[in-house]
Amino acid sequence: MKSGKKIVKIGFDLDGVIVDKPFLIPKALLERLSRGKQENELHYRYPKTKLERRIRKLSHFYLFRPPLRQNINFIKDLKKQGCKLYLVSSRYSFLKRETMVWLEKRKLNNVFEKVFLNLNDKQPHLFKREVLERLNLDYFFEDDKRIVDYLKKKISSAKIYLVNSKQLIPPVFKDVKA
Ligand SMILES: [Mg+2]
């Protein structure tokens, strides 16, 4: 990268952007489990029992969670272009180990300047808002429509994009070079 140019800072959600949903588990059930029942209110549930957390941990074993290769290749490309990249995942504290193992196995542990995990088990949208405000990112990629809508309302400095396994990082973004 040439000197004097602004360094572009880009953040990524993990699940649904870099990590695919686990196969065999229907998406609707996953969402129900993480989101609780209310449709209108933005609230995500924390698995309260030990058994529930154990199941959640097991379902995050790296072989159950395939990588979204196209997005990952794109992310690595941005890194080569000199962008500063940040991972902002609202995975709860009990998934820290599984998350770090996943990143290591997929050789992504050196791609990000910093990995932010929700270690204080806050509500995911609040956690992401806090981190985004602190990082002052230029762009953020997220697969949860409700979080995208929330962040768009609260954060004006970053451009927030909705992406997922079917709707990859928008090609138009490839023109925005560092
Ligand atoms: Mg996600």
From TrEMBL:
Domain of life, source organism: Bacteria
InterPro entries per the UniProt record, alphabetical: HAD-like_sf, HAD_sf
Record-given protein name: FCP1 homology domain-containing protein
